[in-house]
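Need a sequence for this fold. Nothing fancy.
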């Protein structure tokens, strides 16, 4: 179904999980599984130091927002908009605007299908951008953000630079 898109819903701060649960319960009660496919509160793992002890905790990537993958029609709009804790859809006026695929990838919510055969220690050449025609050695690869950190020789010193996957080629 090509009518299904991701929409952003604004909620009261701290109510994201409650809104998600309420929407999911309404989907089940009204049998809207084919129209509202997924409700998501994106989380990320963050290292937190408390009293000298480091531990990993889950944090909301976008506090105050819930992402809904759905077919936009009067019924689904009504269900989501009138869920307790929802203040409205993100978009101009009362018209919800779907997220583009590029926006979903850039926010790290949907994995891009770009795969590169790059490893730490490989030599690459920058093919576009500020560092065009500069070669460097890969120090780290961040597939989630689609960037590599390379060291380049600048003024006789090794300098780390972050470059997008699309801007490099393997030498």
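Here you go.
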């Amino acid at each position: 179904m090509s009518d299904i898109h991701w929409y952003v819903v604004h909620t009261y701060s701290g109510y994201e999980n409650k809104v998600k649960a309420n929407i999911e319960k309404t989907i089940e009660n009204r049998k809207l599984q084919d129209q509202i496919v997924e409700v998501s509160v994106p989380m990320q793992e963050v290292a937190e130091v408390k009293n000298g002890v480091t531990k990993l905790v889950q944090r909301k990537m976008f506090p105050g927002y819930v992402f809904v993958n759905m077919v936009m029609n009067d019924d689904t709009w009504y269900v989501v908009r009138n869920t307790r804790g929802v203040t409205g859809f993100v978009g101009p006026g009362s018209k919800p605007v779907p997220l583009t695929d590029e926006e979903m990838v850039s926010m790290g919510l949907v994995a891009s299908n770009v795969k590169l055969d790059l490893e730490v220690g490989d030599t690459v050449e920058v093919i576009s951008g500020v560092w065009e025609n500069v070669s460097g050695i890969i120090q780290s690869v961040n597939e989630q953000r689609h960037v590599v950190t390379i060291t380049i020789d600048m003024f006789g010193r090794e300098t780390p630079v972050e470059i997008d996957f699309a801007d490099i080629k393997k030498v």
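For context: Residues 47 and 56 are 4 Å apart (CA to CA).
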